[in-house]
Design brief:
By secondary structure, the protein is α+β, with helices and mostly antiparallel strands. The chain is about 40% helix and about 20% strand. It is built from 21 helices and 27 strands. About 45% of the residues are buried.
Length: about 700
Amino acid sequence: MSRRLLVTSALPYANGPIHLGHMLEHVLTDAWVRFQRLRGHSVTYVCADDTHGTATMMSARKEGRREEELIAAMNAAHQADFKGFDVAFDHYGSTHSEANRKLCHEIWAALRAQGMVTVRDVTRLFDPEAGVFLADRFVKGTCPRCGTAGQYGDNCESCGSTYAATDLKDPVSTLSGARPEIKSSPQYFVQIERLHDFLTEWTQAGGHLQAEVANYVAGHFLGEPLRDWDVSRPAPYFGFEIPDAPGHFWYVWFDAPIGYMAATAEWCEKSGQSFDALWRSNDTEIVHFIGKDIIYFHTLFWPAMLKSAGFPLPARVQVHGFLGVNGEKMSKSRGTFVLASSYLEKLDPSYFRYYIASKLGNNLVDLDMNLDEFTTRVNADLVGKVVNLASRSARFVETTGLSERYPDDGGLFEQGAKAGDEIAKAYEECDYARAMRTIMSLADRANEYVDRKEPWKLAKASERAGELQDVCTVILNLYRQIALYLSPVLPRLARSSAALLGEPFAHWDETKRPSAGKQVAKFSHLMARIDPKQVAALVAAQAPLPDPAPANVQSGGAQPAAAGATPPASAAADDGAALLAEPLAPQCSIDDFGKVDLRVARIVTAEAVPEAKKLIKLTVSLGGDQVRTVFAGIKSAYTPEALVGRLVVVVANLAPRKMKLGTSEGMVIAAGPGEKDIFLLSPDSGAKPGQRVH
Ligand SMILES: [Zn+2]
């Protein structure tokens, strides 16, 4: 029986580029969609950029652009990356769309009508200079528990305690440096506790969630009353204004999942399909693919919203773990943060798609992309076992084509056809690793056949031409069966194999019938081995960057936040990584610049501060009797001995800053992202301490 499916991948955040962590999820989803289509089911696959929130607003301000310009550029870059990895959406939209606004209004009205919304005043920190309420990650101050300075507004990295941003001592806005004020403002909440029984039933029964996820939700959230969900943010905020609460905007997480619907609505508009048939019908199975960081939103908030507004519930929420590289979390400072666009400059997307599939089970385990294993596995499996079947046989039947009848192969093709059910079950369950293992065992058997029959020897004996044609007919049929099973993961290989064998891969059941009597096209190269040098270049190309604080941590950020808002420049000698990590500041006047008094100074003494991981205590001379104490965060890049005597540039009129270890009376200027990559600025020779930098 044919199914109708509506499938989504989580919406990438519009404030950063696509990296391989995003791509893991989108490849997983895309392969599932291709599999279902090959089985004859009707599938609509949509996604969109998640655009709203403070992070987008601040990036736009910093770049001096309108938010709409920023998100349009990012949307184009995201779509190009997905296309490059053969991820084929029916539609890729944006949460900043009229379709989304309309649906948000509809769902909000339903929540209001159901009495689900409540309002009460909350206090929060407000930056009087930037004119915005501050998310926790935009405030730094002293931990109220242990007194460590420089901690964010939600938790202390030193003692691990969590607190409200309003409890921080000496808070400073990281946006403007201003001292935030405490302001009260009304806050709108959805009382999802009223749907507690429904949510328990929906998450725990009916197979909507993997057992592991259902248990997690039960163990972490459903054992106690569900907290009211705050869904509003006071202006200024980049988002949709709440129609019956002027000056208040829906919080990004309210409109993000509605973006799944809006993207569908836009696709329906474009293609003449019925939105109601997909989103207001129990005949459609809605399947969301998400990472494990956003379980809460998709298994509690989202079902509560759908239920309140009278929409059908998702049939399935499929959750996966994160991607690491070489045993580490993807990290900018370790250079293991691989952008999708950087990968595509060096490597074929099929390699990544297969490697991910070969490791992905139906669970929440994190995946490690070990680059040596990546190279070995792709070369051994795809090139050594699969493509090799075609390259060792196709040339011999270029002129004759396949035998008129499929010859006796000792039951090999039949065995392969029978394995199809097990492979299909594994795909359906998203146990791709099991599917790939089963397919590779078929490839092993086919290669044994090739080794036994040695077609290259038959080719040398003209009297055995008929035998050669039969052997190659068997090999190419086994190859076709395998390539068809792999086609959800490897659509490029499917296309080139279909061209070689003269018929498209139209349906899964073609794995059950061997081909005979067909022409075979001239063999052309199907897939190259990975050169380990290309992989090494991939990592080397990732110039280490500082790991930015998650800009919009309250969004749950569908994926780890990435810095910058413009697509990376292509490989020029000087790449755009630094500008990407830290976009240019808004224009300032010469008068603004004049306020900063930069002076040449000589480092007189330097000592490491044992209590501080990063700090070196410097005394610098500005000439005469002007000596300053400056604490510089450069310990990771310089030894104290290397500093004494050298000339540097300091900000001489910076307000003194009290620190636990003493007062810092200025700042030494340096460039670079941090860690080993800190570069002090020095004047050319001849400059004297005390000279001003103009
Ligand atoms: Zn602390």
